[in-house]
Specification:
Helix content is about 60%, strand content about 10%. The protein is of the alpha+beta class and about 525 residues long. β6 and β7 form a beta hairpin. α1 runs antiparallel to α6.
Length: about 525
């Protein structure tokens, strides 16, 4: 109940006043969700190609962007079908994510500290109300996928906390939590993955058995298979988008280090510095105190907290510049401040380890004190300077005007507005650019377009969809080297169907997910069958 009330109080501005609309990324998530939900409920259960975005030319966003947070939010669409309610829908989804993350953290900490349930509750509330988690990700940035990403690490750590032997059930559930993070916010796996290994290693060294590391290794392989339906395109379609807009220039990781040169965005710099001080300062101090005063079990967890906090601080600071300048796969984290996810986990663990040894009277009031302090800290953030204005205009979600911010994020534009804005009249879906006759749209649905031609001579028809790899025509021939789909049509009456077919990587990804599900089923069913045979 305490977690529920805390999450609800924390999200009142987002739910009631639509404050989630003030986030930097909110407009893109709003536009994605509106298109995603409409296609989802029209039968496209995994809308990779959002056909109405980018002024109706389509967007490949979900060939690369993790879908799980938007799938959950799309389930709310029948309750809030009007685009003007998109901020409310995103706010409710973020509330669900915040609530789920607090409950997940409570489960983990209760398993790690079975004799200190109130300490576990205090640590879970810290995780829920941490400045990076609540204020920066929800209210300042509108980092919707990262808000949902906070749900998964505590669940994975919970499964790694207390296995006494190698169990199929533990491997299966751990794999599901890993697949959940892969399909929610893939960059976070680069942060959480090594932390999982470190956590397993420290606990295995304590027990002198490699049970957790073995569990993690097997679960990771299974988790990769389960997430294959997403990873198949996420790992291969980056060549079809503007990755320079994501990982170079302004977005170089080395531009966003604590203690370095001024950041390209002074607003986020200010908030991240404040959040870092409020996370690393108390976290390192509390973990050190817990290490010095706690009993053996809590002392081990305090060591883990320090093992999370210190690397996160180094990788966020100018001390790590040589690492970032090597351009390792770590670059896919994009912004070093995302290591505040790891620091937040370390802070909640440190608070729990220290509180586990507190006197009974103090332990009873500690969760309530944490709630009050956490809410006051986040309210204090709203009083700081550089607060961003509201950015979600409901009309801008569906309005499409080339050249303005109603288009998709720059990296998901297969062509610029300038290159295509003159090809069609506003709202026009097809145009005969060569020849004479008439073209009629019979069907216009995700990844499938059907046209009827009545031409006096051979002609060329332009279609208001970007020429993305995978488009195939049932008749005629697609014109190559164009920014938008163009098809050569024969004279007379004919029909043609265009489909955005799955490429090999997409098909292989689905096969990988199917294999993962079969392995998951075998892990769960095989022990029961063996037990029946023994009987």
């Amino acid at each position: 109940m305490a977690i529920f009330l805390t999450a609800t109080l924390a999200m009142v501005p987002a739910i009631v006043f639509g404050a989630l609309r003030s986030g930097v990324d909110s407009i893109f998530h709003a536009r994605w969700q509106e298109a995603f939900a409409r296609q989802f409920w029209a039968g496209d259960l995994y809308p990779r190609w959002l056909m109405d975005l980018n002024d109706g030319f389509g967007s490949p966003a979900f060939f690369l962007y993790p879908p799980l947070g938007h799938v959950v939010t799309a389930l709310l669409h029948p309750l809030f079908p009007d685009p003007s309610m998109i901020a409310l829908k995103l706010g409710l989804s973020a509330w669900l994510a915040l609530l789920a993350s607090g409950i997940a953290c409570l489960f983990w900490l209760r398993r790690a500290f079975p004799e200190a349930p109130r300490a576990a509750l205090a640590g879970a509330i810290v995780y829920l109300l941490a400045p990076y988690h609540l204020y920066i990700d929800v209210y300042q940035r509108g980092a919707f996928a990262e808000v949902w990403a906070f749900v998964w690490p505590p669940l994975t750590l919970m499964m790694l906390t207390a296995p006494d032997r190698l169990r199929g059930r533990t491997i299966a559930v751990t794999a599901l939590t890993l697949a959940g993070l892969f399909t929610t916010h893939a960059p976070s796996i680069l942060i959480a993955g090594p932390a999982y290994g470190l956590y397993a290693l420290i606990l295995d060294l304590k027990d002198r058995r490699p049970i957790r590391l073995t569990t993690l290794a097997l679960s990771t392989l299974l988790g990769l298979l389960l997430a294959g339906g997403y990873l198949g395109t996420a790992l291969t379609h980056s060549v079809y988008i503007d990755t320079a807009a994501l990982f170079s220039g302004r977005n170089l990781a080395s531009n966003w280090l604590l203690g370095g040169a001024a950041w390209p965005d002074p607003g986020i710099e200010f908030y991240v510095h404040v959040a870092s001080a409020l996370t690393f300062g108390p976290g390192l101090l509390i973990a050190t105190v817990a290490l010095a005063r706690s009993r053996t079990a809590a002392r081990i967890q305090a060591v883990v907290a320090l093992a999370f906090l210190l690397p996160a601080l180094v990788l966020m600071s100018v001390l790590s510049r040589p690492i970032w300048e090597l351009h390792l796969p770590l670059d896919r984290v994009q912004f070093p401040w995302r290591f505040l996810l790891l620091a937040t986990i370390g802070l909640s663990l440190a608070v729990t380890a220290a509180a586990a040894g507190a006197r009974p009277r103090l332990s009873r009031v500690l969760p309530f004190a944490v709630i009050i302090v956490g809410l006051l800290v986040n309210i204090g953030f709203t009083l700081l300077p550089e607060r961003l204005p509201a950015s979600i205009d409901p009309e801008s979600i569906t309005r499409a005007s080339p050249g303005d911010d109603s288009w998709d994020a720059p990296e998901y534009r297969p062509a610029s507005p300038v290159e295509v804005q003159g090809l069609f009249a506003p709202g026009e879906r097809v145009r005969l650019i060569e020849g004479e006759g008439k073209v009629v749209v019979r069907d216009w649905s995700p990844r499938r377009i059907r046209l009827a031609f009545d031409l006096k001579s051979e002609g060329v028809v332009a279609i208001r969809q970007f020429a993305y790899p995978g488009w195939r025509a049932s008749a005629g021939g697609l014109v190559e080297g164009t920014k938008v789909l163009q098809i050569a049509a024969p004279a007379g009456r004919s029909e043609v169907e265009l489909r955005l077919e799955p490429l090999l990587a997409e098909r292989m990804g689905w096969w990988a997910s199917l294999c993962g599900l079969l392995i998951l089923a075998f892990i769960r069913i095989a022990p029961r069958l063996m037990a029946k045979r023994r009987l």
